[in-house]
Amino acid sequence: MSRIDSIVYDKEKVSAYQADRRFDYDAQLDLPDYSWFDMLSRWFNDIFNSIFSGSFGENVTKPVMIILFLVMIAAILAFIYNKRPELFMRNRRKKAIPYDVEKENIHEINFDVEIDSALRSGDYRLAVRLVYLQTLRILSDSKQINWQIHKTPTEYLYEVKDKGIKLPFRELTNHFLHVRYGNRSASVELYETMVDIQRTIKTRRKEAANEG
CA-CA 20 to 30 A from 202: which of 17, 76, 164, 183? Predict the structure, then answer.
């Protein structure tokens, strides 16, 4: 008994499958050739369309899109610098960062006298620097840092392991760096803020000593 081929060619079904894009596998494999600018434009378009109505990207020229991209990058870098300025400083092992406190021995400074003198003369920039150095003395005495005369603020930040001290110390260091390197004006308010932060560090240091 001969076998009968049961496969029947249904022309209408085949035509329906060919017309259905879900079964157009060649088209799915043929990825569009987008440039980086095209992808950036689509990304901006999606972001702004989620905020504003209409098609944003289609109405923006290439120069405007490039400017927007650069502004965005600048804003991100400014935000990071404001929060973590030490990240933009070179490590001392590569090249020492010169600043006028690196030759001062913190163990030879009478901080009470020097800070009082700076405040009476209205030199808040000096007062801010002295509070920072005094805090280094506090951390050095409690073995939180290994003070060396040519170390950078960034190196001291990495040395502090106690999170209860590290977070306020980072904030204090940021204030110091903004005044020293960021052309930020020192004021009595900033000085008082740094004194408050230093007080927090002292409290945590005592708590850590009691826990030990």
Answer: 183
